Amino acid sequence: MPKLWNETIEAHRSAVRDAILDAAMTLVSKHGPLSVTMSQVAKEVGIGRATLYKYFPDVEGILLAVHDRQVAGQLEHLHAVRDAGGNPARQLEQILRIHAMMVHEHHGSAISSVMHQGSARKHQLAFLQDILQRSADSGVVRSDISSEELAKFCLHALSAAAEESSRAAVDRLVQLTLDSLRIH
Known about the structure:
Blueprint: H1 3-31, H2 38-45, H3 49-55, H4 59-83, H5 88-106, H6 118-137, H7 147-158, H8 167-181
Helix pairs in contact: 1-2, 1-4, 2-3, 4-5, 5-6, 5-8, 6-7, 7-8
């Protein structure tokens, strides 16, 4: 097939896939994750069920793809902050604040139960461990505890953001976490 034809087919498949994910999230928002069926998703997108099954085997597969898409977007944001460089203390604060706000905003969402499982959790831990090691190397955070332990501490501490009632409370939680990381 000509290159243009392949690009057009891929663009179409990508658009259909995105429409499926968007429709599923709309249905989840209205009815909850356990009420969504493949028939509802197909109808919402405007495609046949047979077409839908070419993209996903079941609703769980769709919800996992939604989760992956959201995590990928969040990770892009975190990587952009890290890659921008600058003051390590400020960079660490921004990254912890972004993470805490994601936890706060997604609490109770259809995908929150899988947000911290599997490869996403491992990636978060490795990413934060790298930032903490860079911060320790520059003298911004304590080095008497391994960056791996500090990363686990941060993720657990910031998971409390899910239960906070306001952004101000999340900010205080981030500040408390930062204070515990700093050299005393």
